[in-house]
Design goal:
By secondary structure, the protein is α/β, with parallel strands linked by helices. The chain contains twelve helices and ten strands. The longest helix has 19 residues.
Length: 308
Amino acid sequence: MTPRFATDVVTFYHPGFWDLTSADAVRDWALANPESFWDRVMDALAEAGVTGIELTFAPGDIESALRAFGSAPAFRRELAARGLSVVSAFIADSDAPDWRDGDNLPAIVADAERRAAFLADVGAQLLVAGLPMRTTYGTRPPFFVDAAYMTRMADIAHTVGEAVAQHGVKLAFHTESNSTLWYERDIDLFMALTDPRYVWLCPDSCHIALGGGDPVAVARRHSQRIALAHWKDAVGPIDVELTIDDTVFTQQQPYMTELGTGIVDWRGWAEAMSRTPGAGTVLIELDEAADPVAALRAGTAVAKKAFS
């Protein structure tokens, strides 16, 4: 089976792609011109030969699509006219209720159900979430990612996973750097504590490698629970303790690289992915590519070679 290729909308966030000077300028312009934003993104996807998208935080979020096209079915029609479709939607930390607050469960479930209803209407079946971030190493009082913590996260995940399943949507968890689902041990513990009927995995090859893990080993170990994967390369493991605050994602950037130029074993990864429920989609993740069409073409070429 030949997989479809997809990407996260964050691929198109580089200011240079929009002839603007900053990320803030891109967000402001896209907020004021949502239809123009999506038209250019969709045209670029079609040009690159990539047919699937993952929605993410603003400006490429659910609310932006609704402002541009009025409804999920209308958005779906616009995409279909270009041979495109939505694969998934990603819940960013800054864009959702905090899982660390035990009183937030009703709000967490309501937020997930809203997203799942949109995904069902647009023809997609996957909601991607993450676990909360760690705290900076050395912070007091210390925050431990232990069995008690993971049990609380598993309980929330079960409740959310069951709720979105009512919409025909699967809940999958992304292995974000410096989060509480980063190290191989974190992933194994969370998977062991969660029901495979309601909780799926979205491994990110880059982020697992940044934590010193083996992405291929993780993919093989949890192959039957992988609903989607993010294909991304890493220069090497993060070799310092980063300050975990609003700048942590920027701090991580120097450790990320284009597919085929880093340490990820793409042949091993492709072989493992071919055995997963998510085998039908290859999602190339490129954070803010200055030339997204060229970068996506290069990334898909690496993926195709890995499968050959």
